[in-house]
Amino acid sequence: MSTHRFPEGFLWGGATAANQLEGAYKEGGKGLSIFDMVTFVPKEARTAEIEMDVKSEAELERLLAADDGANFPKRRGIDFYHRYEEDIALFAEMGFKTFRMSISWPRIFPNGDELEPNAEGLAFYDRVFDELLKYGIEPLVTLSHYELPLTLVKKYNGWADRRLVDLFVHYAETVFTRYKDKVKYWLTFNEINVSTMSPYIGSGILVDRVENVEATVYQALHHQFVASARAVRACHEIIPNSQIGCMLARMEVYPETSNPDDVLAALEEDQKNLFFTDVQARGYYPSFMLSYFDKHDISIEVLPGDEEILSQHTVDFISFSYYMSMVASGAPEKAKQKGNFFSGIKNPYLEASDWGWQIDPKGLRITLKKMYDRYQMPLFIVENGLGAYDVVEADGTINDDYRIEYLRAHIEQMGQAIEEGVDLIGYTSWGCIDLISASTSEMSKRYGFIYVDQDDYGNGTLERKKKKSFDWYKQVIASNGEQL
To answer: Where is the signal peptide (predicted)?
Structure first.
């Protein structure tokens, strides 16, 4: 039993992304996205590199030439495109107050730069939103969740080119206008900081086309910051009662020891992580980042009017993903532990998931308190969950007690943070239905309350089954976090 009171109207729900969920990558007039080009790499064949990165034009052309027999898991998703009614009915049965999803940009503008949108794509999301609203579920919609139209990579090298700002704003204004009576909560860019670790996935950049990768990435990020601020302005103008936020892949970082070198290393990692929300929530580049640019000979082209746009059109709330914490050391030779695009030193006080992600519920409370102290702005946890191997028992049950324990511990810490003064408006557990993993393209890395019968190679019936955690989360929502 939890004694922590979540506020009335707290937005409990689940989170997904179009590229991991929808499938139907050639249907309804959809164009290719960057994630449609990512193949499956078996666990035993993986290296320390991010497996989903596409680094060169030659590699991209090779992937484009591959036949449909190649294993591109994100092209098939879990067929939400055809099964959304069944899935949303299950979300409603759990009592979801909100459902985080993304609109696939190439489903609306197949090449990303058309003047007129694709009518079939617009109609599909109308049907999805209508189905959600039928059950009283608020859509929380991400505009860009690793779904950049592939044509914009080939034509412009993604966000490295300033022209993408206008193209993105045109896309954003199109969907704001279309869905203004159906969607009130929006996010601009998912995990905007991932560009620094994966230029292709975060910004659509092929690194073989540029001389200075780091400088190009930060220039691309400046373009995204400007596009985000312009989208915030458009959202407020087109949908007056809307709320629009930014989204960060949050990584709480601890010093390995009390050695000041370790403390300084952790502080600098933290600053680099929070730089993104600093710009989007405060409206300007922090001085520590300007110093970093100067030391690393990085020069960002800032056009007249950019600083004004950033300062005048900050977000209404800050959202973030939280799965794990990291440890930093002043000694660069220390061995690192991988997880969610980031890497850090192993923490001896924490257990880890099957994928080596260090499980740290208290770190979520630390993050909530730290971010609220820094910004004094509503916070929204839009991704949190445990990727694990699930087993279907002989009687058909899936007893995922490990997932319940993970989520219970994190929600308990959320409740304590709220008691301690944090303004937290919602929580959407990641992968509320099993879907394709973002970082590894696996189906076997499962997060959901709902099991989907499909393996890493696309075999299976796609039948949906409730896990033990389904009824547990239903009780959590019904009691507004009182019963854990």
So the answer is: none
